[in-house]
Specification:
By secondary structure, the protein is of the alpha/beta class. Helix content is 23%, strand content 29%. The radius of gyration is 22 Å and the shape is globular. The mean pLDDT is 95.
């Protein structure tokens, strides 16, 4: 294969997207190139910026023929700010790329033929964030610049409501709402507790997870990494009993308060590490997991795999770690998967998968 060097230039056609949101192209020798800012359908001139063992990275020096999916960015800070990834592509194309990201992870990492049955979205691509945390160095306030820890200074952000932008202009760096409503439930959230950033999309996600769980009135629901109790309360009210487990003590306090606030009496919350929980001893009928981006620990995978639970609902903001963990849960099969656009105009995508325990049969 012909050696490729930094600063080499090529003309390429962008045919797809990488998992990190760059355009994907191939050189004449078959080498994959991740093109920063590339859009599926672009024909462009690129310059190589990084050479890795299996791929190269490149910047665009000239767009020869723009893709039909390429649009003019609607934010003046987009070229320098790292808060958004995809303000240069149409929203329909963004949804395509996100669903494909989920499907690619399921196939490439988990080795599955199953695909996400849909990608759910609210249609609201601006002003959707219910909290935001900006960076500051004492002189500048904003988001990190693209591929950098330099601060791209901003005085407004299209991802947040107008009231948040007023706070940004005052120099505030941590802004969030104190209460959120999901369907007919209300949640109080302390500053230290996690809550999904897009309230309307969270309803879509939880409704799908609730559909997948299909709880029976006699069942116990066990919800791991439950945060402020939103999934436990939203879905667990269908069960006879629900238990939420969370290591963050502030979140557990919020969860207990939220149960009282909503008059839900069939739930309890435990403050402990999931890896120390006796899952099989609780005998849940359904298990919900919503771990951090890094996914489940190896110990959590072992405990879940040995639990004997019939159904697992796995909620994830990282398709790669979801697929990795699914592959490790060898005594479960994936039945359904759905993607949810929790983070419009960024490369990130939420997804939920339903897994069922494989029952072995023996011939006489």
């Amino acid at each position: 294969m012909e050696k490729i060097n930094i600063n080499d230039t090529f003309t390429v056609s962008v045919t797809d997207y990488s998992s990190d949101g760059a355009g994907l192209a191939r050189l004449g020798n078959g080498c994959a190139v991740f093109v920063n800012g590339g859009v599926r359908g672009d024909v462009c001139r690129i310059i190589i910026t990084k050479v890795l063992p299996r791929i190269c990275r490149a910047d665009i020096t000239e767009i020869i023929t723009p893709s039909v999916h390429r649009i003019a960015p609607d934010c003046p800070a987009f070229s320098r700010c790292g808060g958004c990834d995809w303000r240069h592509i149409s929203y329909n194309e963004e949804l395509y790329a996100k669903r494909k990201k989920v499907n690619d992870a399921l196939k490439r990492i988990a080795g599955l033929d199953i695909e996400a049955e849909d990608i759910l979205y609210t249609g609201k691509i601006n002003g959707y964030r219910n909290n935001v945390q900006l960076k500051t160095n004492g002189k500048k306030t904003g988001f990190y610049a693209k591929a950098s820890h330099d601060i791209a200074e901003i005085d407004q952000c299209l991802l947040v409501p107008d009231a948040f932008n007023e706070a940004i202009r005052r120099g505030e760096t941590r802004i969030r709402t104190a209460t959120e409503t999901l369907g007919d439930l209300t949640f109080r959230i302390s500053p230290e507790s996690f809550f999904q950033v897009n309230t309307d999309a969270t309803v879509l996600l939880y409704d799908k997870a609730r559909e997948y769980a299909a709880l029976e009135p006699h069942e116990l629901l066990l919800d791991l990494y439950c945060g402020t109790g939103s999934t436990t309360l939203y879905i667990g009210r269908d069960a006879e009993r629900a238990i939420g487990v969370e290591l963050n003590a502030s979140a557990v306090a919020d969860a207990r308060e939220n149960a009282v606030l909503n008059g839900i009496n069939n739930v309890e919350f435990i403050c402990m590490d999931v890896s120390e929980l006796n899952i099989s001893g609780l005998k849940p009928g359904c298990l919900i997991v919503d771990p951090p981006r890094k996914g489940l620990t190896s110990e959590a995978v072992r405990l879940i795999g040995e639990s004997g639970v019939n159904k697992i609902i796995y909620i994830s903001c990282n398709p790669a770690t979801l697929a990795r963990d699914i592959k490790l849960l060898t005594n479960y099969s994936v039945v359904r998967v759905c993607a949810v656009d929790m983070f419009p105009r960024t490369k990130h995508v939420e997804c939920v998968a339903m897994l069922e325990r494989i029952t072995k049969t023996f011939n006489k």
